[in-house]
Amino acid sequence: GTFDVVVVNLYPFYDKVTSGAISFEDGIENIDIGGPTLIRAAAKNHKDVLVVVDHHDYPALLKYLQEKQADPQFRRMLAWKAFQHVASYDSAVSEWLWKQTNSGDTFPPSFTVPLSMKSTLRYGENPHQKAAFYGDRSLSLVNAGGIATAVQHHGKEMSYNNYLDADAAWNCVSEFENPTCVVVKHTNPCGVASRQDVLEAYRLAVKADPVSAFGGIVAFNTTIDEDLAKEIREFRSPTDGETRMFYEIVVAPGYTEKGLEVLKGKSKTLRILEAKRSGKNMLSLRQVSGGWLAQQSDDLAPEDITFTTGSERAPTDSELSDAKFAWLCVKHVKSNAIVIAKDNCMLGMGSGQPNRVDSLRIAFRKAGEAAKGAALASDAFFPFAWKDAVEEACENGIGTIAQPGGSMRDKDAVDCCNKYGVSLLFTGVRHFRH
Q1: Which 3 state secondary structure label does DSSP give 189?
Q2: What gap in Å lies between CA 54 and CA 380, rounded to an integer?
Q3: Rounded CA separation 103/419 (Å)
Q4: Which of 186, 230, 264, 276 is catalytic?
Q5: What element of type H or E holds 259?
Q6: CA–CA separation, 213 vs 206, rounded Å?
Q7: How far apart are CA 269 and CA 267, in angstroms?
Q8: What's the chain's Rg over C-alpha atoms?
Q9: How far apart are CA 359 and CA 337, in angstroms?
Q10: Which of 64, 77, 208, 261 has its CA 20 to 30 A from that of 169?
């Protein structure tokens, strides 16, 4: 007789290779061969054979059979799901085999990214654009943390822009070891502060740019307890001392029971996320028209590089600390990027300008008089110094400048800083962000 229904559960290869260290032989043993063959054959012949690979489809299948339905779309949907299931399974096997035969520092000549829809979104970047959110089931991202796997405890459903902003805030705050608060608006950190007292860090981060912080995303790298939750709920804008600060999202690695209860009382719409620290050395993908760009994630920390003094005056210990803090902040700001910081607190930043001078002026306008004696970090080298960004920074009273170097006019930057008694540090590392 003929087969009417084919139901297959594949060997649990994905679960096996992600459960811990296993031998190569054990991994090979868990690759299903007959199952995918059965599935593909049944799916190809879906006109006559119902193929099922997901137990959630059992009720619909039973109803279809019991009512003797003849809906070809139902059969096609099961066939599509079957082929997609096998493709995802094969992508896991392919990824695992590539890592078994390569050191991991090379890009495979071809690969598949297994995506699984987690939710449809109200709209995309703008209301006229449809959108959805997908989780990445690549083996490399198992237990990798990040916003995609965050737990939402409260608030409205996440939007397209919410995901982008929350990701930017979480990636930035995860860089810091000391208790830190980061405030983000349109993926740019507009306030960053580190303090042993996280309440003070929060106040300083908002104070850096309270206008931008309003309606932004607030991220912490410490557990939010009752005291911090009350401060977030009741804090008034430094601009007028009256307006209660409004945020779209709060994200942290954890919440106490009371802290979560208090924070939920701030607003019915406030999205409260709990996330795990993002993994390092991840593959970063970005789409361009007709293709994709792949690169390693930018994971360098101040401890990984050497800050080389290029000027006559070497920075003091506190100035060097300020420069490292500013350098860590500037890597998360859109290019051209300038950050001014002091005492582990961002004072001002300029982002996304076509020329570095405009970004510098924006940063100084936000920092005000507090910029005097502070550290300035640039994401890339200064192409000019005299009557340009470097001299303007010196004239505004900056104490230390940290930049990658590499310009044919680096000596001009050195001479300019020497004239004004400013300490100039070369990092040798550029931090473009587009």
Answers
A1: strand
A2: 51
A3: 49
A4: 186
A5: helix 257-264
A6: 6
A7: 5
A8: 26
A9: 6
A10: 261
Task: List residues bridging with 350 in a β-sheet.
Answer: 338
Q: Is the pLDDT of residue 170 over 90?
A: yes
Residue 128: active-site member? no
The H-or-E segment that residue 100 falls in is helix 72-101
- 347 near 374, Cβ under 8 Å? yes
d(CA 195, CA 193): 7
DSSP H helices, 301-379, are 317-330, 356-367
CA–CA distances in Å: residue 296 to residues 97, 105, 165, 239: 20, 9, 21, 40
Residue in this structure with the two tokens 């505004």, named with its chain if needed: 396
AA letter at 324: K
Is 230 assigned a catalytic role?
Answer: no
Which residues, listed in sequence order, are joined to residue 162 by a DSSP beta bridge? none
Q: Are 211 and 172 in contact (CB under 8 A)?
A: no
Helix (H) or strand (E) holding 133, with range, is: strand 131-136
| Domains of the chain as residue ranges with CATH | 5-100 (3.40.50.1380), 147-276 (3.40.140.20), 302-426 (3.40.140.20)
DSSP-H helix ranges across 338-404: 356-367, 389-395
For 374-408, what is each residue's pLDDT tens digit? 999 999 988 988 898 999 999 999 999 999 998 89
For residue 272, what is the enclosing H or E element?
Answer: strand 271-274
Task: Determine the average pLDDT of the residues in 121-126.
Answer: 95
pTM equals 0.92
